[in-house]
Amino acid sequence: MKLGELNVNRIGYGAMRVIEDPDIWGPPKDRANAHRVLRRAYELGANFFDTAESYGPHHSETSIAEAMHPYPKDLVIGTKCGLVRPRKERWDEDGRPEKLRQDLEGSLKRLKLERIDLYQLHAPDPKVPFEDQVGTLARFQKEGKVRHVGLSNITVKQLEAARKIVPIVSVQNRYNLGDRHSEDVLHACERLGIAFLPWYPLGDGSSLRTGKVKALAQKLGAKPSQVVIAWLLKKSPVMLPIPGTGNLAHLEENMAAAQLQLDDVDFKSL
Known about the structure:
Layout: E1 2-3, E2 6-7, E3 13-14, H1 31-43, E4 48-50, H2 59-68, E5 76-81, E6 83-84, E7 92-93, H3 97-111, E8 116-121, H4 130-142, E9 146-152, H5 156-163, E10 168-174, H6 183-192, E11 195-199, H7 211-220, H8 224-235, H9 248-256, H10 264-269
Parallel strand pairs: 3-4, 4-5, 5-8, 8-9, 9-10, 10-11
Antiparallel strand pairs: 1-2, 6-7
Helix pairs in contact: 1-2, 1-9, 3-4, 7-8
């Protein structure tokens, strides 16, 4: 599928979980394992990695560079800006242009890049005019430091407003089998040919424990997590799931979901 003109496979890798801490705070406890997971994700076909400067903070991006640089030619890296972590339980929006500039320069340095393939506003800051936040990312693109601009945690109205300022190639909103509140945003992305990255694609695990999912997994000889990812893939041609894990076995399971085909009856049953 397409991110702008870039070709990426249908399942990417969410690199938040290379930070094992439940609050996504600090460096990976097992750095060697983090590197193995990142390399294996690419080997299994995930040629899109999603990260953010706030993951760690900074340690997810650093781990990607440690494991993967110099990067394979087809690896697309997306990162995000606009959050601040004063302490580990806090994820506060900060969309001031000077903060976004600081985030960009830091991400470029940590990722060892001259240009970021996909740069996403992590969440709109209600204290800063939305147009100013998107306009700042548009300036980064004009400077040649960002190839493509994306948005995260937005509404359809915000997507429409942003597209008047700069081309948008992706939207990353929370979406999974049990949480479809962003259905209207997904439909807008379909209409516009914009990639939709569902974060929290497996949800809190409750969907994996439902009778329907477990029964279908048993019928297909698959894991419940694979059924849920396969459902996302069939749900929309613009869907780009980015399941994240720090566990090699779980990574193998998640990536194998690309081979699982749900027929229309099974799909509708969920």
